[in-house]
Amino acid sequence: MKRISILCLLGVFVLFACKKSKDDSWHSILTSKKWVRSYVDKNPESTPKGPAAAPMLIVNVLDCESDNEYAFNSSKKYTIDKGDELCYAGEEQTVTADFSLDEENKELILDNLKYTIFEITHDQIKLYRPVPTTTGFSGFIYLYHPAK
Asked: How far are the Cα atoms of 16, 25, 42, 49, 78 from residue 20, in angstroms, in the given order?
């Protein structure tokens, strides 16, 4: 009887452990909520150190972009709702494009632009895109936080 109880407890533990890992996949996190751009890095430790001669730069968020919401869906499309403040006259309110997520190679492709994934958690998405060193930087970092 004791052995059956232990096996049942072990089975329940395995069931919940497997479910949790699936819910915490990058794809699941990415598609579970809307995201907004940010300039605040909630987890600086997840950023690899670039060379001193060409550091990485966190890309600033323009005021007109601060209310843009990014929504990713399971059909491999993402939508940007530009919010109340548009950046220029005639700008489309909503833009939809394709995305591709490669968890094994840590890559996110947004509308044919490839980003390296530094972090995807429930609190933050951190993407990296290399730039020519003539800019003075090795690459740009893009941060996203859950929309409120």
From this structure: 6, 9, 23, 31, 25
Nearest-angstrom CA–CA distance, 77 and 62: 24
What does the pLDDT read at residue 22? 52
Mean pLDDT by 10 residues, the chain (148 residues): 48 46 83 97 90 85 96 97 95 97 97 97 97 92 97
Domain 2-146 has CATH 3.30.70: no
Percentages of the chain per state (helix, strand, coil), in multiples of 5: 25, 35, 40
Give the predicted TM-score (pTM) of the model: 0.82
Query: What is the distance between the alpha carbons of residues 133 and 46, in angstroms, rounded to a whole number?
Result: 22
Query: Which residue has tokens 């936080």?
Result: 145
Contact 116, 26 (CB under 8 A): no
Q: Compute how many other C-beta atoms are within 10 angstroms of the C-beta atom of residue 126.
A: 23
Distance CA 127, CA 114 (A): 10
SS (H, E, C) 53-78: CCCEEECCCCHHHCCCEEEECCCCEE
